[in-house]
Amino acid sequence: MLQKIKTLAKQNATLLIELRHHLHAHPELSFKEYETSRFIAGKLSEWNINYKIIAETGVVALLEGKNPLKRIVALRADMDALPILEENDVEYKSQNNGVMHACGHDVHTTCLLGAAKILNELKDEWEGSVKLIFQPGEEKNPGGASLMIKEGVLENPRPEAIAALHVHPGLPVGKLSFRSGLVMASADEIYITIKGKGGHAAAPHVTTDTILVAAQIVISLQQIISRNKDPLTPSVLSICSFKGGNSTNVIPAEVKLMGTFRAMDEAWRYKAHELIKKQTIEIAHALNAEADVHIDVGYPAVYNNADATANAAKLAKEFIGNENVEETEIRMGAEDFGFYAQQIPACFFRLGVRNEKKSIVHQVHTPNFNIDEGALETGAGIMALLGAELMA
Asked: May I ask the CATH class of domain 186-299?
């Protein structure tokens, strides 16, 4: 089975590049992936793979091998792009101005399509069933994963494990990396509005200096991390937007702050939410202002199941050799794959796409992000192998 999957992955290398070029040239923003969804559905139909559409643009298919109920695993790819103007000078450059596959979701979708084709061609040679999940809206709250789950993507049949890959611009092409346990943080959005009596900057004593109040709050919020959190538990609170006033001599009546809070412990996560609200409101009151605090609860932390991850890493070593499988790092970035991991055993791993000789070194979410397309063969092959043998 292993050798047949490797052979088919290599034979489909050109097709994989063509698929990726099409997807990369036609990116769509979160929850607007209508053409992407149609493209995926068209390929599945071409390969005689039945599918259905859920969550408006999500695509789900079920491949059945021998003894379909013996084992059921799911493979997931996200397919939305980012509001970034691409700067790469390539023939497959984004044709949708200001929208770009800068996080590699075109790669993820291509690899899952490749795996679907391989598994379908070998369906008489592996046991169980594989659920293929092409998911919208990973880049935007509430996360497409949460919507797919609400619409039953993990039911009828319910997988016993799920796997997904993500491009890793720091990992050389031809390599994969895995890690058991916590691998990515939860992510919540913070919105704060400070209100007070504005007025002339030359008479601050008859106003409420909302700029000063907001500045005090920004500085004070960092003490929630430094003085309240277990120092052995990773967590980040960053205020990334500070908007108030438009004049040199007018104290504004309102200041708005926006930021993000990341954590890797659910109990601490929600305790921190209360501390953020309490500290913000009480500092504002102490300085004669009012504060409205809204925390948009986002994605949970991504937790990799030990057995599923060990099984996946073992298969990866068989696929590309021990020397090409590494342990990935913990990241404070977030992924809505965490919603799946809350429901069933999960494995979220990394696909190397870096090639310094080709100057393919840029990070995700940047205008110059790109990949060494040799990674597509590796990605499609390992996803097919996990579909055929994960948890077997």
From this structure: alpha beta
